[in-house]
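User: Show me a protein chain along with its predicted structure.
Assistant: Here is one chain, sequence first, then structure tokens.
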Amino acid sequence: MLSSYGYALPEDRIAQHPAGQRDASRLMVLDRKTGRVSLAGFVDILRFLPEKCLLVANNSRVIPARMWGQRQEEAAGGARIEILLLTPPPLLEVLPEPHGGFTAEAEVLLRPAKKVRPGDRLSISDGLEMELIERGDFGRCRVLLRWRGDLQELLERHGAMPLPPYIHRPEPQKGDVLSGSQNDDDERYQTTYARQDKAGSVAAPTAGLHFTPELRAALLASGREWAEVTLYVGYGTFSPVRCPDIRKHPMHAEYVELPAAAAEAVNRARREGRPVIAVGTTSIRTLEGVFAAQNTPDNGMPNGTLGAYAGWVNIFLYPGQPVYVTDGLITNFHLPESSLLMLVSALAGRERILAAYAQALDEGFRFFSYGDAMLIL
């Protein structure tokens, strides 16, 4: 039941800013078999990672997907509408306009959505506008984007980093220069290994925020291995679970890319009995989602292996759901009653996870995106 994944979290335990240095965050290590907990700093994670293990990380990049528009007939003084672009730009089906520019259908979140009707046009900048096609539930809408020039450059100029709503920042005002104006969020709400050609996420794969280039170099020098996948973080990762019976929660599909080299690294580690550790819940959803998509009775894949994959997956992990590929997880501390809290409970059990969270609160750990980390083994 949904209510069994609740816990009391004081407001002041939600991290509003990252640690001074990426690897200066704290680390809780949870043995999922015994429930034993160890406390350390993230910089010391190599003391706990199994020798020769394979770490799998999500290299997607967060885009400045948060924008503001005004209905064109009210542009001189109408209310601003907040827009969150949900469709990753690399997945847009872009069409050229007859007289220059481009169009593409996209999914967005609008706030307040009730102020916009189908057919209304929102002006975002001189080179970027959108037209509402269809309004859906909870602010999700289908729109037609129109722009001139390079869309990524327009987003960089007129968009803001889509920080979660529990991270409080002053609301940008009309005419503000947004890039670089958010207390270093442009840098720190991005992993150091995020790839420019994988720009399309609307939330960071936050477990990776703790890694520095130096820590990754030490990891590789120690004989451990690193592989990368791509999952464009979208609506599904922060959509609340609303069903009292969590098994009825409609998990949204996510677009993932598992390169051949990463698939082979995972297969090789599993053949050799080396643990596969996912860096973040997006990485475990990629691995387990691709496994579920490929290992069916009629697809011809050898039993239990992974192959290169690019496409949509739809996997919801909670206690009782099998985890086939992943032996451990590096993650942050998640919201009460969230699908991510259920995911980590699929690995370690609900009671052990909630007991570990209670201890983390007692020990002064910081929670959520900019908070401290947990290693589940």
